[in-house]
Amino acid sequence: MKDHVTGLLLKHRRGATECAHAALAAASVILAFLVRFEFSLASQYGPVLLLALPVLAFVKAVVFRAFALRDLAWRHVSFEDLLRISAANAVATLGTAGALRWLIGPAFPRSIFVIDLLLCTVLMTAARAGARVLCERHRGERGRTGAAPATEKRILLYGAGGAGIRVLAELRAHSALGMTPVGFIDDDPYKRDLRLSGLRVLGTGLELNGLVQRHRAVEVLVAIPAATGPQMARILERCHAAGVATRKIPPLSEWIDARVVDQIREVRLEDLLGRAPVQIQERDTRPALSGKVVLVTGAGGSIGSELCRQIAGCKPSVLVGLDNAETALFHIDQQMKECFPEVQFVPELGNIQDSSRLCEIFARHEPFAVYHAAAYKHVPMMEHHPFEAVENNVFGTANVARASTDCGAQIFVLVSSDKAVRPANIMGATKRMAELVCLGGSDDGTRGRAGREGPTRFLAVRFGNVLGSNGSVVPVFQRQIAAGGPVTVTHPEMRRFFMTVPEAAQLVLQASAMGVGGEIFVLEMGEQIRIVDLARNLILLSGLRPDQIRIEFTGIRPGEKLLEELGTRDEGTLPTPHGKIHVCTGARISRAALDHALRQLRHAVDMRDHAAILGCLREAIPDYHPSGLLLRRASGGRPIRAVAAAG
Question: Assuming Cys at both sites, which of 36, 188, 576, 584 could form a disulfide with 520, CB separation 3.0 to 4.6 Å?
Fold first, then answer.
């Protein structure tokens, strides 16, 4: 019966709200008369009240509808709602004052208007507050009648701001979760002893250890959505010292269409980076790829597989995944079948160095867009294998670019690296050469096949290290921590840009939608992060304190730089419609100069001549500074200085 009545009220919410407002308006007028005459209404004012009552009710009904008070929610009363209610009552009072002074004249007591204004505002506010309390109590009772939690978990809320208050309300409304807030913690000392929604601010984070013991808390829930990386690291370290688990609420952008309690999660590495992940709009990329044939090279890798997942969400007609690693290709094939059964995914096993195999694949599928993520990327490994780096990163890219043009592809996007900027290693130099292949390809006037619009648009996307990618420093640190240490870091001041895998893939897709050809896109990535700080943060996330795992500095390896760059001063940057994405306006290369450089480099690789490779790369990339290791290998017994000068 109770649920039936509730259903009827919800179905006729507007009418029920207007009836409630009319009843409250009438009650406020009657109470105003009683208060004015000290609850002893003289006989001559009885007719005045009877005449005033319908006038007041009518005027207030019109004004309340004009202010849309019937559309205000009862269960979620905000400060803005209270302002709207107050403003509506003020306007209604002015309207009724004019009407009654005209109908009754000076015989109507003017003080009634002031009293009625205050009483009506208070009654409407109190009614909504009461409705909210009853609804929350009802939700709490329903939660308690559900599956009872095995144990009660006493928690401390870290952050006594708006987000903390909202989380408190959600936890109280979902008591079946078994999470009982016992107090707030906030680093603002002026908030101490404040009571927010009935819960006291117990102290600051410096007192966390004692507060945990005093209140028998077993978990700290961080309710600071905009917490910086260093701030989160300090909180996590304090929680580990106090021996309590730590979880957090997500950033505000992730609260849409979901309850906050459903999104409480463990602290992640990206929470400690000091930079919120960039959110890139998908509305531009979806139409561009919907119903098209899309090909991804390196589809089994970290970036390539994430590209496949995000492209699948754009509903292409066919998604082709090309990779040379059989096992990795098998895994992405299985994942695509499970997660995107409606998308036709075609795994193609092949090597980008094999031009005939590429021609076969591209002729069969004729892709509209090509995303080239296949590359050798490990700096120390490539310093020992320079010929393989050139074969794969330079000539492999040239093969894919040529196959894209021959089949009439409209878009070619190269996944590049910040190590291509003033390169100090062979990997960075070959990625810069791959960028030049793209820039040279954008100057090629070759038209696509019949039925395709114009030449291929060649673009490059340049970003920093990707967290959790295959072979990145993060898995290495995690293995070392699991083994009890030491964690090896090359240099205490080694710094890098970091981004998440989804960010990297989103940037690539956004660039393909924005570019017109010949651009190098870069993502604004904030400040570089010290690798040693990353190691300490991973130790914290593992549940240990940094002093429990030894960090050992091993020295800079050949080809490594202390700092990386996303662009040089000479290149400059231009803005794009997306505030966090910029375009580098660097030196270009003509098609003729590119072809000459590739011929010279091809000859040097075929001859297995280290000195010739360095000479070719330095001629094409004047700001390339080879490592001492490569210079020694190229010297062949000659002084290194002479080899460098010859290059």
Answer: 584
C-alpha span between 376 and 431 (Å, rounded): 9
Residues 6+ apart with CB under 8 A from 404: 362, 367, 370, 412, 456
Q: DSSP labels for 148-212?
A: PPSS-EEEEEE--SHHHHHHHHHHHHTGGG-EEEEEEE-S-GGGTT-EETTEEEEE-GGGHHHHH
Distances (CA, A) of 270 to 24, 415, 471, 472, 502: 52, 22, 18, 15, 12
Q: CA angle 452-456-457, nearest 5°?
A: 125
Name the DSSP class of 499: E
Q: Is the peptide bond before 486 cis (omega within 30 degrees of 0)?
A: yes
pLDDT > 50? residue 48: yes
- Please say whether the beta carbons of 208 and 155 come within 8 A: no
Does residue 299 contact residue 347 with C-beta atoms inside 8 Å?
A: yes
Q: Which of the pair, 615 or 7, is modelled with greater confidence?
A: 615
pLDDT at 524: 72
Determine, yes or no, domain membership for 566: no
Domain that holds residue 608: 603-646
Position 471 in a domain = no
How far apart are the C-alpha atoms of 45 and 303, rounded to whole Å? 82
132 and 95, same structural domain? yes
Closest C-alpha among 332, 273, 278, 284 to residue 502: 278
d(CA 493, CA 498): 15
pTM of the predicted protein model? 0.71
When pLDDT is averaged across residues 228-254 and rounded to a whole number, the result is: 80
pLDDT exceeds cutoff 50 at 644: no
Phi, psi angle pair for 266, to nearest 5°: -70, 155
User: Taking a C-beta distance cutoff of 8 angstroms, is the pair 49, 109 a contact?
Assistant: no
Q: By the 8 A CB rule, do 519 and 295 touch?
A: no
Asked if the model's pLDDT at residue 647 lies above 50, the reply is no
* Beta carbons within 10 angstroms of residue 574's beta carbon: 9
Average pLDDT over residues 73-99: 78
In whole angstroms, give the CA distance from residue 321 to residue 599.
Answer: 30
Pairwise CA distance, residues 407 & 360, whole Å: 10
Q: Are residues 439 and 584 in the same domain?
A: yes
